[in-house]
């Protein structure tokens, strides 16, 4: 197989691995996450071998795509592949309202991946939509996140990787001194009753205090609630959250404000239970300040720094 053919397979596999974790992805995210160092023409050439995106240019994983990913043998023992959501291209059986919701979930997940990948000490990443965090003995879900996103920052720089690579978690032990950030994304379009949100806050509180997340995920999660822009919804949710989990964890942001230049790490959020309301850096609960995060990324960009994801220029 020629070098060009191998590169095509690697990129196509990277697209499938992304879709298996976010379920749907707008074409812009496929382009910016998987083809940041290549021309649009080359990206279209690789993607032409996949089923065409459904208007308005949205990609998703088909059963055939999942089978191809399994055949490549790059997802460990296959457990991750088995949990990947798939939909037939010809008949995805998806209502428009559900797709709109799911794309809001995917947008934030992709923006979090986009932002985290800038860090020179990024060790691994994990993303799973519709994550059941707790279930009853009969299998009934007690709590379900719209998405679970985690990434680990090592204490020392990691080996360099290509600009398009996403270091998905593969069971490799977490390095000593590393910090793992865990997020539970919750999309609120305004249709849910506030009483339900009060109950959600109480569930997060109970599972955090019982150390359930520590037992299942290795540590506590930070609820990230995203709401429509230009509404009073954020304030309403914050009040319910304060009642359900006084002084508890959580941030709230708008669909648009939670991303700055497509980066969810640098987005604008408010601490859920702060009185009065105050801005909060997304990684603050994990002991990472905005200053230390920005400094690490700035160091990577310096000519003598460890530029792990240096753009190599558009080619082909």
Explained architecture:
This protein is an alpha/beta fold and 316 residues long. It has two domains: 1-94; 96-316, no CATH class. 37% of the residues lie in helices and 17% in strands. It has helices spanning 3-22, 27-34, 40-47, 63-72, 79-82, 96-116, 194-209, 212-217, 233-244, 290-301; strands at residues 24-26, 58-60, 122-135, 141-153, 179-187, 222-227, 251-254, 270-271. The strands form two sheets. It has a six-stranded mixed beta sheet with strand order 3-4-5-6-7-8, with helices on both faces. A two-stranded antiparallel sheet has the order 1-2. Strand 3 and strand 4 form a beta hairpin. Helix 1 (3-22) packs across helix 4.
Overall pLDDT level: 88
User: What is the 3D shape?
Assistant: globular
Q: In percent, how helical is the residue content?
A: 25-40%
**How many β-strand runs?**
8
Keywords:
316 residues; 2 domains; six-stranded mixed beta sheet; two-stranded antiparallel sheet; globular; disordered C terminus
Task: Present the secondary structure layout.
Blueprint: H1 3-22, E1 24-26, H2 27-34, H3 40-47, E2 58-60, H4 63-72, H5 79-82, H6 96-116, E3 122-135, E4 141-153, E5 179-187, H7 194-209, H8 212-217, E6 222-227, H9 233-244, E7 251-254, E8 270-271, H10 290-301
Parallel strand pairs: 5-6, 6-7
Antiparallel strand pairs: 1-2, 3-4, 4-5, 7-8
Helix pairs in contact: 1-4, 7-9
